[in-house]
């Protein structure tokens, strides 16, 4: 009986929830909920497990000669005149037996591309596209106009200061795919492994980047991907005779890095931002224990449902922004970001000519793949030990946060940083952008924390200028300035 009733619900979700937008889809909660229903996987996956597996399986490599030229984008449909940088996109096979290949998009810098660093950008979900979300909505060189057909230049694009590589990860996300459908049941471990294999092969295709300064950045659930991949790179740099990747640093934006602080940080943010009542907040704090190994009580689950219901239909990822609706043009967001942007991206990326120009396989492209998140296999409850290892390794570790995000809010990041037990070197100060406070900074030992004021979850969408200023500081290895 149950199955009969649940299937239609399930399939209607597939149709309606593929975007982050006003329909309330929450890819992170989707994955967490499915993890909870399979209690055995809610445990900690050790770092040793990952390393051991990798040491025992050689990294797949294949010849890449001539493929760079094939991947060059001559122009994107609807691109504005005067594009002054090179773009490439295509697939890198990471498993030939399964027929698994990851899709990338590279936007090189207009100026100094041959000396600017290489930056990998990863979106989270799990299951969300780095090209559609990261490049087309956040930090890439173009934004899709409301006709779904033409593009305009984003003057605050991050490729102004770096060569930015967007990777659709894992297989099943965006344009990345596998010919073996069981690969779509994946998790953190496989994602890290495939991303590493991608990098090693991609660097063969673009050998001019082999020794370039390299950074890994990302947001949300990429709070798992970025540290795990960085750890793998550092470990493999020591043990293989393959390419040594010149990893200089990582930056994590509104990142889900720790289950306990993610939960308490979110509900505390709800309460302090007048989204839930005193009673619900008290109900959660006195009935819920979100730490590893604790029992999740019925009362705790009930209060969390109440919190989600009390929140009602607001844009979770930027709590003061308008929803995409027929009225959204009459009430534009403070930042001027069009809340219907993801619909334009959906329309544009599903245009056959666009897919062709990107060298993508013809597919029904989605912003987030619901099934990938639902079937997520391994998800450690915390990656803080990995972050601590990276902090001690000498690479630069930055955590940044848009302070109007309700999903992985700034409170969650601050609680997580407390758990890292590092000490303050440069105390909290406001950083400035164009004569106004861009946000706040704390310099910790081996860690920098930066907020971006007035930005939601997708920081460069809502505060493009402040986001680029922060990003340029990160690459320079200098704290954003107070002046
Ligand atoms: C997947 O299968 C198609 C059709 O057989 C083939 O053209 C493609 O190369 C395969 N993909 C990979 C990564 O092997
Ligand atoms: C390009 O590099 C030169 C030399 O380092 C520097 O002076 C110049 O400001 C850079 N231009 C841009 C746009 O980054
Ligand atoms: C190093 O390269 C050799 C020869 O190509 C290979 O046999 C060996 O397995 C490699 N070692 C590692 C650790 O990858
Ligand atoms: C929460 O659960 C953990 C693990 O069972 C336990 O060690 C801790 O004492 C609990 N915290 C509270 C406040 O009960
Ligand atoms: C743009 O694409 C979206 C999503 O496919 C669609 O709902 C909308 O009608 C399209 N708009 C135009 C102007 O074609
Ligand atoms: C910072 O890094 C150094 C080594 O580079 C290490 O000895 C120290 O324990 C680290 N401290 C923290 C809090 O990460």
Question: Could you characterize the architecture of this molecule?
Answer:
- By secondary structure, the chain is α/β, with parallel strands linked by helices.
- The protein has one domain (2-275, 314-476): Alpha/Beta hydrolase fold, catalytic domain (Rossmann fold, 3-Layer(aba) Sandwich), CATH 3.40.50.1820.
- The chain is built from 17 helices and 13 strands.
- Strands 1, 2, 3, 6, 7, 8, 9, 10, 11, 12 and 13 form an 11-stranded mixed beta sheet that branches. Strands 4-5 form a two-stranded antiparallel ribbon.
- A hairpin with a 2-residue loop joins strand 11 (424-433) and strand 12.
- Helix 9 (278-287) runs antiparallel to helix 10.
- The longest helix has 18 residues, at 188-205.
- It is globular.
- The model is unreliable at 1-18 and 40-44 (pLDDT under 50).
- Bound molecules: 2-acetamido-2-deoxy-beta-D-glucopyranose (6 copies).
- The site of one 2-acetamido-2-deoxy-beta-D-glucopyranose has 4 residues, from loops.
- It is an enzyme of class 3 (hydrolase).
- It comes from Tagetes erecta.
- Its EC number is 3.4.16.-.
Give a short account of the largest sheet: 11 strands, mixed
Cofactors, ions and other ligands in the entry: 2-acetamido-2-deoxy-beta-D-glucopyranose
Q: What class do helices, strands and sheet pairing give?
A: alpha/beta
Number of E-type strands: 13
What is the domain tally? 1
CATH superfamily: Alpha/Beta hydrolase fold, catalytic domain
Proportion in β-strands: 15-25%
The CATH architecture:
3-Layer(aba) Sandwich
Supply the CATH class.
Alpha Beta
Taken in chain order, the helices and strands follow as: HHHHEEEHEEEEHEHEHHHHHHHEHEEEHH
Overall, the morphology is globular
Radius of gyration: 21 Å
State the separation between the terminal residues, measured CA to CA: 66 Å
| CATH fold title | Rossmann fold
Which spans of ≥5 residues are poorly predicted at pLDDT below 50?
1-18, 40-44
Mean pLDDT, nearest integer?
90
Number of helices: 17
- Helicity, in percent? 25-40%
């Amino acid at each position: 009986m149950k199955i009969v009733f649940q299937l239609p619900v399930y399939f209607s979700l597939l149709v309606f929830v593929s975007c982050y937008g006003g329909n309330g889809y929450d890819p992170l909660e989707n994955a967490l909920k499915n993890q909870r229903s399979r209690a055995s996987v809610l445990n900690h996956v050790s770092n040793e497990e990952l390393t051991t597996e990798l040491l025992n399986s050689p990294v797949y490599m294949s010849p890449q000669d001539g493929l760079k030229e094939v991947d060059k984008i001559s122009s994107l449909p609807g691109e504005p005149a005067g594009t002054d940088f090179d773009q490439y996109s295509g697939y890198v096979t990471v498993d030939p037996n399964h027929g698994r290949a990851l899709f990338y998009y590279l936007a090189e810098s207009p100026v100094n591309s041959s000396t600017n660093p290489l930056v990998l950008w990863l979106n989270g979900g799990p299951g969300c596209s780095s090209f559609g979300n990261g490049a087309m909505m956040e930090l890439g060189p173009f934004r899709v106009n409301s006709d779904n057909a033409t593009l305009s230049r984003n003057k605050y694009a991050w490729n102004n200061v770096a060569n930015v590589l967007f990777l659709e990860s894992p297989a099943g996300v965006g344009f990345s795919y596998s010919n073996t459908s069981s690969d779509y049941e994946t998790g953190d471990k496989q994602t890290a492994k495939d991303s590493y294999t991608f990098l090693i092969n991609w660097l063969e295709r673009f050998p001019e980047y082999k020794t370039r300064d390299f950074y890994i950045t990302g947001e949300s659930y990429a709070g798992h991907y970025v540290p795990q991949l960085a750890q793998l790179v550092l470990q493999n740099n020591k043990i293989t005779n393959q390419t040594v990747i010149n990893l200089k640093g990582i930056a994590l934006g509104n990142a889900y890095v720790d289950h306990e602080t993610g939960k308490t940080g979110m509900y505390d943010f709800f309460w302090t931002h007048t989204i839930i009542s005193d009673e619900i907040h008290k109900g959660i704090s006195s009935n819920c224990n979100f730490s590893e190994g604790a029992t999740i009580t019925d009362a705790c689950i009930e209060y969390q449902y109440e919190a989600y219901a009390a929140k009602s239909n607001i844009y979770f990822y930027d709590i003061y922004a308008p929803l995409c609706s027929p009225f959204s043009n009459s009430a534009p967001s403070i930042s001027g970001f069009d809340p219907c942007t993801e619909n334009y991206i959906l329309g544009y990326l599903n245009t056959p000519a666009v897919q062709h120009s990107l060298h993508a396989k013809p597919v029904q492209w989605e912003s987030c793949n619901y099934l990938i998140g639902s079937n997520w296999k391994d998800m450690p409850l915390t990656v803080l030990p990995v972050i601590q290892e990276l902090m001690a390794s000498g690479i630069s570790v930055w955590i940044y946060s848009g302070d109007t995000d309700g999903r992985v809010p700034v409170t969650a990041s601050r609680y997580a940083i407390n758990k890292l037990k590092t000490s303050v070197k440069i105390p909290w100060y406001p950083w400035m952008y164009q004569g106004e406070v861009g946000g706040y900074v704390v310099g910790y030992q081996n860690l920098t924390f930066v907020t971006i004021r007035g930005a939601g979850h997708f920081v460069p969408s809502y505060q493009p200028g402040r986001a680029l200023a922060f990003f340029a500081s990160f690459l320079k290895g200098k704290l954003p300035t107070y002046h």
